[in-house]
Structure formats: C-alpha cells, structure tokens
Amino acid sequence: TLEVMLGSRFVTTFNDRGVQYNVVLQARDEDRLTPRDLTNIYVRSETQDQLVPLSNLVTLREMAGAKELNRFDRMRSVTISASLGPDYSLGEALDYLDGLAKERLPGEARISYAGQSREFRDSSASLLMTFMLALLIIYLVLGAQFESFVHPFIILLSVPLAVTGALGTLLLTGITLNIYSQIGMIMLIGLVSKNGILIVEFSNQLREQGASVREAVQKASEARLRPILMTAIATVFGAVPIALATGAGAESRTSIGWVIIGGVSFSTLLSLFLVPALYLLLARLTKPSSYVADRLRDLEEEHSIVGGRARSAPVIEIPAP
Questions:
Q1: Per residue in 55-79, pLDDT tens?
Q2: Under a CB-based contact definition with an 8 Å cutoff, are residues 70 and 77 in contact?
Q3: Does domain 1-63 correspond to CATH entry 3.30.2090.10?
Q4: pTM of the model
Q5: Domain 117-286: which CATH number of 3.40.605.10, 3.10.129.10, 1.20.1640.10, 1.25.40.10
Q6: φ, ψ dihedrals at 239, nearest 5°
C-alpha cells in the first residue's frame, strides 16, 4: 500500500501512436505532502474484509534514515567513500579498515572494496604469486646453467636487497604500494640478478683453472666491479626520466621508475659485498664443473697403467707330460 501511494509503483506500459509510456500508480501530490497524510491511508483487512486506517496498525515516528536501501549479493549494504591522507599508503588504509570492521561490525557483516582499493587487493594476491613464480623459474634456469643448486641461491639473495631498497624509496617519495610499483619489483628480479651472475660465473671459471675459492672470488670481484657499476649506473639514469614523468598516466610510470632507481642502487651497493662473502662461505660445498671430467680422466689413466702392467707381466709355460 505504501509503495503504491507514495513510492510510484510501475505496473505496465502504454503505447500511443508508436510511443511507449510507463504506467505508474501514485497518490495525488496534495494527498502526500505531510507525514499526517499517512494516517489517511486505508488498507483492507484480510479477516473482516473491511478498510482499516493505517494508523490503527502502525505507530508513526519521525527519525533519520537512509534515502534508499542498497543491496549487494542480496544483502543490505552501505557504501562509504574516503580519501587517503598524505602520510598513509593504500595498503595501510585497507589494513586499518579491516581491523576496524572486525572490531565494530557484527560477525555476520561482510565488507567489500570497490575501485582502486578492489584492484589493489585483487592484484596483490596475483602479483605475489607471480613474484614467487618468477623467482622459482629464474632459480631453475640458473641451476641448469651453473649445474648447481648453491650458485643460484647466492645470486638470488640480491633480490631481497632490491625489494628493501624499493620499499624504502617508496616511503621516502610518498608513493603508495600500488599495482605499478609491484610490477616494478618483479622487474627487479631480472635487473639485479645480473650482478651476482657476473661474479659467480667468473669465479667458477677461475676455479676451473686451479684457483682456490678465496682467490677466485677476489679476482672475480675486482675484474667485474667496473661492468657491474656501469650497468647499474646506466639503469638508474635510464629510469630517471620515467620517475620524473608528468602528464596523463604519469602515476604508473613514476611508481615503476622510483622502484627501479631505489632497488637497483641499494642492491648494487650491498651485493658487491654480500655476493662475494656468500660465495666464499657456500662455494666450498661445491666442486668446479670440470671436477667430474678430471676425476674420470684420472681414473682412466690409472686403469690404463694397471692394464699395461698386466700385459707386460711374464708368461710361464708349463711343458706337457
């Protein structure tokens, strides 16, 4: 009854000379101007088949309420909009809202994000899986290249340094941890791994030539210092225009640029000390790639010498009786 009298109930359509009109049931404007007009509404009783005033069935009370009731997944919902403060990232704000919802809302209540917040939550889970998958693939590729499970571990330990530098740079520049900065961190896996590859590969070559582990890593660090610094400086300066970009869509390029600058710089400075130290500590557990071939060659020479002695042994002839 209230919907028909006050809410403009749509019932059917009407066609007139090719134009379709909606048929809406609604009380006259003068009959629904004040709250007192609600007492003049009558409803039919199912038991007595008579019209009963609505005031006999309900109590009217004025109070504040929502203009309309929204629903999401067949549940009543309320949409709340907010803006980030200058000192908070999007991830921190969402974590705060999650904690506040668990503290204040009843147990059956649910929350769902929209817009950039929803994209951030959806992309965070997928990008984390992508990050771990990229680490695993690079580890397996390096393991096949170096024929060892220790050397790839030494090389990839520069990745946490790069992520730390990237997060610190985002904190200093005031950029939030968004989908673009996370993509930049995935890029860092390939950008910073080359420093460890240069040192480990050259150290392995020196060990194959007979150098000890300490001597090999010292010479490799000295020989590869200039190429590592040159490539790192070129990468950082190449990312500066991206970090300082302006105009439409500059937010995405700025996030990726600062992640590359901070991650490559911090990782390069520390990996020059960390990679040689880890190689000196862990490479003692491995053998040079030519170790197996040299061992087989030694065994072959040893067996050939033994066989030669057997062929040169004197032969004793026993005469027939």
A1: 777 887 888 877 777 887 777 888 8
A2: yes
A3: yes
A4: 0.59
A5: 1.20.1640.10
A6: -90, -10
